[in-house]
Structure formats: C-alpha cells, structure tokens
Amino acid sequence: MAAPRDFRGHPASPGRAVGPVHRAGEPPAPSGLAGNGSDARAALEAAVSRAVHELRELSARADPESAGILDFQIELLLDGELLAPALARIGAGEGAALAFAAALNDQIDEMAGGGGEGEATHGDPFVLRAVDLMDLQHRVLDALAGRTRADFPPGAVYVGRDMPPSVFLAHDWSSGGAIALGAGSTASHVALLARARGVPMVVGLGALPGETGEPLLVDGTRGMACLHPDARQAASPSAPDLAPLLSPVPACEPAAWEPLRAASAVPDRPFLFANLDTLADLDTLDPAVVDGVGLVRTEFLLTSAAEALSEERHLAVYRRVLDHLAGKPVTLRMLDLGGDKALPGLTEGDPAGVLGTRGVRFLLAHPDLARIQARGLIRAAAHGPVSVLLPMVTLPAELAAMALLFDEEAVRLARQGIEGRRPPLGIMVEVPAAALTLDLFGQAAFFSVGSNDLMQYLAAAARDNPAVAPLYAGAETAMFRLLDLICAAARALGRPVSLCGDLAAEPAAVGRLLALGLDGLSVAPRRLPALRAALGAAFPALPPGRA
Ligand code: PEP
Ligand code: MG
User: Fold this and answer.
1) Is residue 89 one of the residues assigned to a domain?
2) Which of 25, 42, 209, 528 is most buried, judged by most C-beta within 10 A?
3) Looking at the structure, do residues 292 and 373 belong to the same domain, yes or no?
4) Is pLDDT of 30 > 60?
5) C-alpha of residue 52 to centroid of ligand 2, in Å
6) Residue in 428, 451, 479 to alter for ligand 1 test, most ligand atoms within 8 A of Cβ
7) Is 328 inside any structural domain?
C-alpha cells in the first residue's frame, strides 16, 4: 500500500472528508469547427443561448445564494461586451470556437495577471474572477461542440487547479466529498459556496499528485490534504488550526456604548448595565435606571434548537430587547453552548465539558449555526446600538475567524437587499490564557470580564461544585491581580473593559472594582438597587434616580 503523503495549502472551508480523487479534466480544446462567417456567428449565438438556458435551469433549482452567482454568470453572457471581441474575430475569418476561446483567454489572462487569481486572499467574494470567465468559456465551448457537462462521482474529492462554480452547483454533495485545489482562492465564489454547504475545501496546494480513484483526505480546517491517508489519519478528528487566520487584523469599530462616555456628566463613573437571561427579565428592568444592557445570555433567550436555528427568531428576540431599551446600547453575547449549557438537539450538555468545545469553540465547530446567529445580530444592529460579545475566547484567531464570518454574512445580506449593520465584536475575558495576552486582541472592540468562569479556571475549581467552593472563593486575590493586568492591557489598547460576572454584584467588592478603573459593571436587574446604592456612595454627585 502506498505511504501517506501530506500537502499543505490554505483552509477555504472547514471540515474533513476522505474520498477517491476525481481529477478535473482539461478544458475542451477549441476546434475551430462550427463554420466561418455568418455560420460561425449563428453557431456562437446559439451556443450562448444554450448556455444561458442551462444556467437558468440550474438557477431555478438552486438556493438563493447559489442562484445569485448563476444569475451573475447569465448577465455576463447576455452582456454584449463579453461577446464583442469574439464576434470581431469571427468577422476577421476565425471559426466560432477558436474565436470565442481566444477572445475569453485574452480577458482571463488580463484578470489572472491582475494578481488575485491563485492567491488565498480574503477579498470581496463578489468580484468577477478569472475562474468565473473560464467557467463560462467551457460551458459555451461544450455547447458549441454539442457536449453535455460531465458530473463526477458522488463522494469523490474534486482535484484541479480551480473549480468552476457551476461544476460545484451541478454536483450532488449529499454523499460527502471535498475539494482540493492547486490554485484557487479562499474568497472565490466556489469557496463561498463550499462554506455555505459545509463541503471541506483546501486551496493553494500547488501541484498535487494523485490519479483518479486514489484515496485523498482533505482537511479544510487545517488547510491540509493527505494522499493515501492511513486508517488513523482518516479517522482522527480535525484539530482546529487557526494560525492562518491570525492576520490580517482589520481595524474595528468602537463598542456601541463608547459614545456614552463623552456624553456622561460624570466621566469617571463606570457605566451601570443590566444582565438579561430571559425576555421576562425585561419586565423587571426600568431602562431609565441603567446606561444599557451589558450582557444578554442568548443561550437562555432561545429555548430550543428550532429557535436557535431560526434567523427570524433571533432577530425578533433581539428587537424586543432593543425596543425595551429605547436607544440605549445593548451587548448581545453569542450562544455560550457546550459545557453545562445544553440546548437539546444541538448539544446535550456535559458539566465535565467546561474545558471542551464550549462558547466560541462550539460556534466555530458549527459554522451553520454561527452564521444564522450572526445574520440575526447583523439585522438587529440596523435597529439600535448593538455590540456583540463572544464567549470563551482563548486565542485571537478565534476572534479573527468570527470577524471574518460576520464580514461574509454582512456582505451576503447586503447583496440580498436585507437591511443590516456589521456590529462591533468584543470578547468575554474568562479564560486565563486570553486574560494574560489581552494585548494581542487588538481586533476586539471591547472587553467584558466573565468573573464567574475566570475564577473557576484560575482556581481549577468548578463554579457549581460545593466541595471546592472555598477554593473558588479563595482565588479572589489571584482574580484581582489578574483584573489589574486586564484593565492595564485594555487601557493600553484603548479599548473599554467592563465586568459582567457575579463579582460586579457584590457590594463589598465595588470599591476595589472601581479602583481598577473598569468602564462598566453589569448585573442582573434585581441586583441593580444594591449596586446603584454602592455606586452612589462613591459618586455622591450623581443625580437621584440615575446611577
Ligand atoms: C461569567 O462567566 O462571568 C459570565 C458572565 O458568563 P456566564 O456566567 O454566562 O458563564
Ligand atoms: Mg462565562
């Protein structure tokens, strides 16, 4: 049996799959047949009509996003500008196929020379790329030659230099399979489609060997391919390799609550925010007595898998909160599922899993769910000042991955004509590794300390285990030392930092928390009166009725 051989590329769509190689065929050689002069012109026009007809048929069966890409190809074919150079060549005596192939080759060369093709870029996915023109070229040449496009076997791994979007769309992916490209781009149409359909894909693999039928493993999370994987490699789950996502780090928008500072009559007073767990909490929250909402635990707001998988439901509950707050800023935390937080149908919960696939780790492992929530959040942000908080972040790469996902969904919504606004993303500081490396999180718009989890991870004492409760409580000294570092790092980055764990609701701790220079404290509505009283003592100049 052949030995395994590894190849490194760029991750374009996460997940892993093993299947027999299907090597993409060479493009059809233009024959120059189909006549000259007026014959050739008529033959080319008929082939273009046939290609348009095929694309319309594909588009009618496709989901809205795929249909958008196919409609874009139809528009290109119907646009006289694309055909004009080919018709000019026919006018000069060339045959239809040669004229069309050569005319498109000129345009393809021009685009490929522009630098985008073949590179794993994170650019705008909705730009015309050389591969789109090649796709059209092959389709029209097939039509001219009277050939029908051959699909490839279900479950196979498509191996080629690049993949035309229409080949992806015509294929049935329900039996699995994957894509391994020698060139390609992470921002191409086909990469976008692969991510949306959950098809593992790696680009930039270079000259990948392997004949049709040989087994190939594609690990779209790590950006790797392995020819002839052994049984262990084929079975082992994919460990996320987030390194390729570490750069670039785009500038971020400020948190939705930052403008409050400038407007505050007492600029050094920390903001007083409420934590919300359910919509019923709104009944107990008078928006006049808070500066906004510092934490919405969306995993408690959406009470079933069906709700969590409904973009409309996300939007509806977020709008309820925004409407109640009447213009005050609202920080919505993405689903903190996994560990002890269950959502039957999505995760059954496992108290021992608090060190496992929880929070943002769970979301990145379930990108379809994350995309649904991101779309709900982006749409909600069009209706009020929304910031989005990511739970259980450990590495900057996790934030970068989620930021990319938000960027992509914001672009998709815009293309679909749906109102939205890309909200600023901040992180929960509740994993010691993140707390100690906050200086590396320049991509975060703000920070919110989750003292409940930070304390349990610092003390290695579960927050809900009475047997180790004294250790949990005893870690307070360590906690305050770390809070000092967190606040200093946030200040150095110029980002606001608040605290939304139960520590903020302990009146005895308020003095020490204020001394740290925290920008905000966020507590459950019923804990607000005590916190307001403690803050009032520190800021006697506050007007009555206001925190
Ligand atoms: C925390 O960990 O402090 C926090 C606010 O998040 P949760 O309690 O939901 O884990
Ligand atoms: Mg937490």
Assistant:
1) yes
2) 528
3) yes
4) no
5) 53
6) 428
7) yes
- Which residue's structure tokens are 């409309």? 312
- Whether residues 77 and 116 share a domain: the answer is yes
> Within a domain: residue 240?
no
Pocket test for ligand 1, best of 297, 335, 355, 456 (most atoms within 8 A of CB): 297
> Closest ligand 1 atom to the C-alpha of 451?
3
3-class secondary structure per residue, 77-110? HHCHHHHHHHHHHHHCCCCHHHHHHHHHHHHHHH
Cα 68 to Cα 415: distance, rounded to the nearest angstrom? 9
295, 333 contact by CB (below 8 A): yes
Ligand 1 atom 3: the closest Cα is on which residue?
450
Same domain for 112 and 190, yes or no, is no
What protein residues have CB closer than 5 angstroms to ion ligand 2? 430, 450, 453
Q: Are residues 423 and 453 in the same domain?
A: yes
Whether residues 381 and 447 share a domain: the answer is yes
Q: What residue type is 195 in one-letter code?
A: R
Quote the number of domains for the chain: 3
In short, whether 453's Cβ falls inside 6 Å of ligand 1 is yes
Check whether residue 282 and residue 212 sit in a common domain: no
- Centroid of ligand 2 to alpha carbon of 454 (angstroms): 7
To the question of pTM greater than 0.85 for the whole model, the response is: no
Q: Does the C-beta of 294 come closer than 6 Å to ligand 1?
A: no
Q: Is 500 in the pocket of ligand 1 (CB under 6 A)?
A: yes
pLDDT for residue 144: 81
Q: Which atom of ligand 1 is nearest to the CA of 295?
A: 5
456 lines ligand 1 (CB under 6 A): no
How many angstroms separate the alpha carbon of residue 144 from the centre of ligand 2?
A: 61
Lowest mean pLDDT among 82-86, 120-124, 307-311: 120-124
Residues 171-199 pLDDT 10s: 888 888 999 999 887 777 788 778 777 88
Q: Which residue has the tokens 């007073």?
A: 269
Ligand showing the shortest atom-to-Cα distance for residue 393: 2
Residues 453-511: pLDDT tens digits? 999 999 999 998 899 999 999 999 999 999 999 999 999 999 999 999 999 999 889 98
Tokens of 135: 């796709």
- Asked if omega into 248 is within 30° of 0 (cis), the reply is yes
Q: Does residue 547 have a pLDDT over 50?
A: no
Residue 117: CB within 6 Å of ligand 1?
A: no
What's the average model confidence in pLDDT over 374-379? 97
Cβ-based neighbour number of residue 60 at 10 Å: 9
Residue 540 is encoded by which pair of tokens? Answer: 């006697």
Find out whether the beta carbon of 359 lies less than 6 Å from any atom of ligand 1: no
- Domain interval for residue 23: 5-30+149-232
Q: Inform me whether the pLDDT recorded for 251 exceeds 80.
A: no
Q: What is the pLDDT of residues 278-325, one digit of tens each?
A: 999 999 999 999 999 999 999 999 989 999 999 999 999 999 999 999
For residue 509, the CA-to-ligand 1 centroid distance in Å is: 17
Where is the domain boundary, 144, 164, 188?
Answer: 144
Cα separation, 362 vs 348, in Å, equals 13
Q: Are 347 and 360 part of one and the same domain?
A: yes
Q: Please return the burial class of 541, using the count of CB atoms within 10 Å of its CB with bins 0-12, 13-18 and 19+.
A: exposed
Answer yes or no: do 287 and 353 share one domain.
Answer: yes
Distance 354 CA to ligand 2 centre (A): 10
Which amino acid, 269? R
Instruction: Determine the Cα–Cα distance for residues 190 and 169; give it in Å rounded to an integer.
Output: 9
Is 545 a member of any domain? no
In this prediction, residue 185 carries a pLDDT of 78
450 alpha carbon, closest ligand: 1
